[in-house]
Amino acid sequence: MKDSERMIVSAWTDGEVELPWSSLxxxxxxxxxxxxxxxRQHNRVKQLLVNDGEPDWTAxxxxxxxxxxxQNPVRPFVAHLPWSWISVxxxxxxxxxxxxxxxxxxxxxxKTGPQMAELKVHVPQQLELKLSGDGQLIMxxxxxxxxx
Amino acid sequence: MNRWLLFTMVGEEPQVPxxxxxxxxxxxxxxxxxxxxxxxxxxxxxAAEEIVQEAFIKYWERRDQLPTDDGLKYWLIRVVRNLTLNxxxxxxxxxxxxxxxxxEPAPKAEKPAVEVMTDRESVSDVQxxxxxxPESLRTVLVLKEYxxxxxxxxxxxxxxxxxxxxxxxxxxxxxxxxxxxxxx
Lengths: 148, 184
What we know:
The complex is a heterodimer. In chain A, 70% of the residues lie in helices and 0% in strands. Chain A starts with a helix and ends with a helix. Chain A is mostly helical. Chain A has helices spanning 3-13, 21-31, 33-51, 58-70, 83-120, 134-144. Chain B is mainly α. Chain B is 73% helix and 0% strand. Chain B has helices at 2-12, 20-42, 45-61, 70-102, 113-118, 125-132, 135-145, 151-158, 162-179. In chain B, helix 2 packs across helix 4 and helix 8 (151-158) crosses helix 9. Chain A binds chain B through residues 3, 6-7, 10-11, 14, 16, 41-42, 44-46, 48-50, 52-55, 57, 60-61, 63-65, 67-68, 71-74, 77, 80-84, 87-88, 91, and chain B through 6-7, 10-11, 13-15, 17, 19-20, 23-24, 27, 31-32, 35-36, 39, 45, 48-49, 52-53, 56-57, 60-61, 64, 124, 126-127, 130, 141, 144-146, 150-151, 166-167, 169-170, 173-174, 176-177, 180, 183-184.
């Protein structure tokens, strides 16, 4: 029996020979003692391999999972967010911070208004001011509206 | 300017994260198969655990670029195979280094390194015979008998033709039959 024929029998035991060839091989295995013996031998090797005892992997599976958890893969979820999400979140925070800053700034300007108005009350009506610059001009215009 | 570019580019190519739950599911589904294959390739439980763990770390690091269908299974098996080969090479180097230090050959130096590795563990005659096969034959036979892959799938995983898989499976079985002639 040639090696090429033995190889056909090996593939046939794996169900890897297509129709109509598989039926022809089946017939040959039934009729020819040499083909029959080769098929028996291949099936026997298959059987020995499949029936060979194997460790129970349940404990190993848990152990490896614990190691994985302790190392890299299953660290906290936030650390695994993609950069796009982190960027969007950072941009959103920036916008909120800027908006908040602006808002509180505006509130503080409004609040300084009454304080300045309060100052006007104590200034004499006939007061004359020497104007020398924009700052004083603003003060003067404010003073003009302060009288009774 | 650079900051704006970074934001834009990342935003245009959204990455779909593999949530932790999906990772757990993939681990639960595929790890038993990988343990089995690796054990049959190395003959050592410890090595199988180490290799499977490393394979899943590699998976986690590249999860966004990997397929989610059967392609992932094939990729993990390829990783496990490469890690197994590296493991065997490393063990071989360690053994040779010890031989040099003590000026005497290891107990079974004329046999493949993989067999020497198994001396410390009690393995069956079938497993010992399997470990005597060259890696190229052992891998295809393990994938056929212990993972039940079709020749075409094995070919895809190992980047060889289906015909080549057929030849290797046949040669592996013929050698095993010879090694186990008392029981075959």
